[in-house]
Design a protein that fits this description.
With about 400 residues, the chain is of the alpha/beta class. The protein has two domains: about 140 residues, Aspartate Aminotransferase, domain 1, CATH 3.90.1150.10; about 220 residues, Aspartate Aminotransferase, domain 2, CATH 3.40.640.10. The chain has a seven-stranded mixed β-sheet. The protein starts with 9 loop residues before the first strand and ends with a helix. It binds pyridoxal-5'-phosphate.
Length: about 400
């Protein structure tokens, strides 16, 4: 067994009076949440802010819940620097429903009318899913793809196809571990981006985008809430047949309360944002995230056993796949299996790669401390030494 076997398993509660069992969770999502957030949620479970109720029991239209959603939106605006002409929506259905809502609202046409052009860059499995939905409602141009090298890079972004009503990218590709090295210039064509696995991980110039969306379960909070940030002039163009629940204009007009919003998820998001603000905001977390990623990439680049399959110019800060070198077939699979099992026994969990790509992957979102990455590297060094 390896030396680090117990280090990840014990965490001190924030008041330092006791130890509790916590693992370092490298899951791609749902993923780790900051311990102080979980502790505060636990402490407030039966009585939130002196109301004598759990957030789960509150009427979403009550004076008790309103400050919670307003706080969540206010903090998100402050931390991300969202300009005043953008709306923030708290929706449901995950990032996957946005694959449909974006084309329905930005490119949808009345029945019988000519379809509108959409440009999309294919950088992985999530981009492909977004493309499949966009093709149902618009004329889709896939302007570039990195499928030829297993999505291990981000292709140069071509200009939008003529007449495009929006241009879609997947900013951080959770499964293959790439991130756009720069925001593509799409001229006057609004840029829409899936930022599910990178939101708030480092500064991002929101004003360069027409629309951003993110499922909460990577960097924001629990699964079940989706954040959409949309420029006001793009809100109102859905054709009449689009269901009310799928229309940005209706959710916007109702302040994300057309129906019951995911209240508890929004509450946890507010706690996560308060934690992030105490930490120093997006600049500060960006520095920590760059440090974590550098530690891990430097280790991989010097390892005899593992390597990163991703081009250096577009490596993700959040999701880092790694693959055994020079081992093929059953031996490779055996090594991967043994790695994942021994890591889990050492309190380093969820390191298997995506079921469609295999290998291993460490997702190191905002809530993963530097110590977690250091523990993983120590484990991997020790694992390497144990190999024949
Ligand atoms: C996780 C993820 C999704 C899927 O999110 P759901 O909330 O499960 O629909 C989509 N895009 C990216 C980039 C993701 O990381």
């Amino acid at each position: 067994m390896h030396e680090v076997q117990q280090t990840a398993r014990l965490a001190r509660t924030s008041h330092c009076k006791e130890y509790i069992m916590r693992v370092y969770n490298f899951s791609p999502g749902p993923s780790m949440l900051p311990l102080p957030v979980l502790e505060q949620a636990a402490a407030e479970m039966t009585d939130t802010g002196g109301t004598g109720q759990s957030v789960m029991e509150m009427s979403h239209r009550s004076g008790d819940f309103r400050p919670i959603i307003e706080n969540a939106e206010g903090l998100l605006r402050e931390l991300l620097g969202i300009p005043g002409n953008y709306r923030v929506l708290f929706l449901q259905g995950g990032a996957s429903l946005q694959f449909s809502m974006v084309p329905l609202n930005l490119a949808g046409v009345e029945q019988g009318a000519a379809k509108k052009r959409i440009t999309l860059v294919d950088t992985g499995i999530w981009a492909k899913k977004a493309a499949a939905e966009a093709a149902k409602y618009g004329e889709l141009t896939i302007a570039a793809s990195s499928a030829d090298r297993a999505y291990g890079y981000i292709p140069p972004a071509p200009a939008p196809a003529a007449g495009s009503v929006y241009y879609h990218i997947t900013w951080n590709n959770t499964i293959v571990g790439t991130k756009w090295p720069a925001i593509p210039d799409t001229g006057s064509v609004p840029l829409a981006a899936d930022i599910s696995s990178a939101i708030l991980s480092e500064p991002l110039d929101v004003s360069r985008f027409g629309l951003l969306y993110a499922g909460a379960q990577k960097n924001l909070g629990p699964a079940g809430t989706t954040v959409v940030i949309i420029r006001e002039d793009l809100m109102g163009s859905a054709p009449s047949w689009v269901p009310a629940m799928l229309r940005y204009d209706i959710h916007g007009k109702e302040g994300s309360m057309y129906n019951t919003p995911p209240c508890y998820g929004i509450y946890i998001i507010a706690l996560v944002l308060e934690w992030l603000k105490r930490l120093g905001g997006v600049e500060a977390i960006g520095e920590i995230n760059r440090k974590k990623a550098k530690l891990f990439y430097d280790y991989l680049d010097s390892s005899r056993t593992f390597y990163s399959p991703v081009d250096r110019s577009c490596r993700s800060l959040m999701n880092i796949p790694f693959i055994p070198r020079e081992t093929e077939g059953p031996r490779k699979e055996e090594l991967e299996k043994r790695f994942v099992a021994e890591a889990a026994a050492a309190g380093l969990v969820n390191l298997a790669g995506h079921r469609l790509v295999g290998g291993m992957r460490a997702s190191i979102y905002n809530a993963m401390p530097v110590e977690g990455v250091e523990a993983l590297i120590r484990f991997m060094e020790s694992f390497e030494k144990s190999l024949p």
